[in-house]
């Protein structure tokens, strides 16, 4: 997958968010650690956590299926700072 494809998936508002019984932030971190085992919470602000740069997760080989799953867990990308972080709101 390319960074462009990953950004398109993470920006796709048609992917339904799945607020299940578990913690979406933790479930997303599990997906991220599958590809980047040494990554976790890189930063936290109020109710938002950041974990990994887009380039890191793409270079590690995240699949389209896992990117869609990550998006369905309400994980997003930081499009505004130029840093390209993958992050989640804690709910």
Can you offer a commentary on this structure?
- With about 90 residues, the protein is an alpha+beta fold.
- About 40% of the residues lie in helices and about 20% in strands.
- Strands 1-2-4-3 form a four-stranded antiparallel sheet.
- A hairpin with a 2-residue loop joins strand 1 and strand 2.
- It is globular.
- The termini are far apart.
Q: Give the terminus-to-terminus CA distance.
A: 29 Å
The ordered H/E elements are: HHEEHHEE
Q: Runs with pLDDT <50, length 5+?
A: none
Output the radius of gyration. Answer: 12 Å
Helix content estimate: 25-40%
Average pLDDT figure: 87
Number of strands: 4
The side-by-side strand order for the widest beta sheet comes to 1-2-4-3
Largest sheet geometry: 4 strands, antiparallel
Number of helices: 4
Strand content: 15-25%
Q: Which class of secondary structure composition applies to the elements?
A: alpha+beta
Q: Give the overall shape.
A: globular
């Amino acid at each position: 997958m390319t960074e462009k494809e990953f950004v398109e998936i993470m920006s796709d508002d048609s992917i339904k968010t799945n607020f299940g019984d578990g913690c979406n932030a933790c479930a997303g971190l599990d997906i991220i650690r599958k590809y980047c085992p040494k990554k976790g919470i890189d930063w936290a602000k109020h109710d938002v956590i950041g974990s990994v740069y887009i380039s890191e997760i793409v270079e590690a080989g995240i699949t389209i299926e896992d990117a869609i799953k990550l998006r369905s867990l309400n994980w997003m990308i930081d499009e505004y700072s130029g840093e390209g972080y993958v992050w989640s709101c804690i709910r």
